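I'm stuck. Protein, please.
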Amino acid sequence: MRLTRPANATFLVAAVLGLLAILGAAGVVAQAAPYATWLAIGGWALLSVGCLARGL
């Protein structure tokens, strides 16, 4: 399996999702707290697909 570097936009969106997950789990962003797990899973999945798919 050959991995590629994700596009900058893909990486930034995944990083924002991860940051929201961390802040939600810590209670800093109360609106994101119920979705912290799903935000982390979504960010990880997006970054994984970005590494596996060419040009994403």
About this structure: Residues 8-52 form one domain. The chain has one domain: 8-52.
